[in-house]
Amino acid sequence: MPEPQKRQIACKVRISDLTNGKYVKEEGWTPNYIVTKQGRHISRINLIGTVISKGDDGQGYQSIIIDDGSGSISLRTFEKSEAINSKEIGDIIVIIGRPREYGSEKYIVPEIIKKIDNKKWIDVRKIELEIENLKTAELPAREEKVIVENIGDEPEEQTKEITNNPKIVYKTVKELDSGQGVDIDDIIKKTGIKDAEEIIKKFLREGEMFEISPGRIKILE
After folding, report:
1. Cα 190 from Cα 202, distance rounded (Å)
2. Both 100 and 159 in a single domain?
3. Is 135 part of a structural domain of the chain?
């Protein structure tokens, strides 16, 4: 039996990071990835973009094209997807997914697609990407950390050991945020939960929360 596959962190990126990067195919169970011009190895992405086109091009998959100002890329699924069907041109969406390449064209196989009603999240993402660029410049050879999860697990199964702690952390962030985000240390002190910081990191990885500035987070609403 193969070992449980590792689920990589969904890296926050620009579309141009993907389209200008080099796609690398791996053997066996190791996930394929894109090497960006900054040297980052990205096998799972988290990006925000605007839907500029949608439809079925007759090749057996549904698709929409998104643009984030740095470039455009298509999201493709080979199964009927309400997440794609329900999106309209002009919608701003956050996507968690995996980059792929067919021929010389890169595209994304989405895992999560969520519409964003508050356009200010675009500005938040710009700040996050600027912070990431600074980190990359300071530590060009740093390795991306990974989380070991069983891909087949349901979210409830993944959080059994911490009972309802994620709900408590989420609720606390929402209560403390007056509009400018909440300091992570304040959340940890308020909840008193031992694993609060790890829970917050998981919310950030999954795109449920965003780091509006270093050490300060907001909920995606």
Report:
1. 18
2. no
3. no
Q: Which residue has the tokens 């509009």?
A: 179
Residue 163: alpha-carbon gap to chain centroid: 24
pLDDT in 10s for each residue of the chain, 221 residues: 444 455 578 888 999 999 999 999 887 778 889 999 888 899 999 999 999 998 765 555 788 999 999 999 999 887 777 888 888 999 999 999 999 998 889 999 998 899 988 888 888 888 888 877 776 665 444 333 333 333 333 434 433 433 457 888 888 898 898 888 899 989 988 888 878 888 888 888 777 788 888 888 888 76
Cα→Cα distances 160→86, 154, 163, 172, Å: 32, 10, 5, 20
Structural domain boundaries enclosing 118: 7-122
Bridge partners of 107, per DSSP, are 74, 100
Is there a domain that residue 129 lies in? no
Instruction: Determine, yes or no, domain membership for 137.
Output: no
Note whether 87 and 173 are same-domain residues.
no
How many domains does the chain fold into?
Answer: 2
The CATH code of the domain that includes 31 is 2.40.50.140
> What's 160's domain CATH number?
1.10.10
Distance CA 106, CA 71 (A): 12
Residue in this structure with the two tokens 């990126």, named with its chain if needed: 13
Q: Nearest-CA neighbor of 66 among 91, 82, 49, 83?
A: 49
Q: How far apart are CA 185 and CA 91, in angstroms?
A: 34
CB 184 within 8 A of CB 209: no
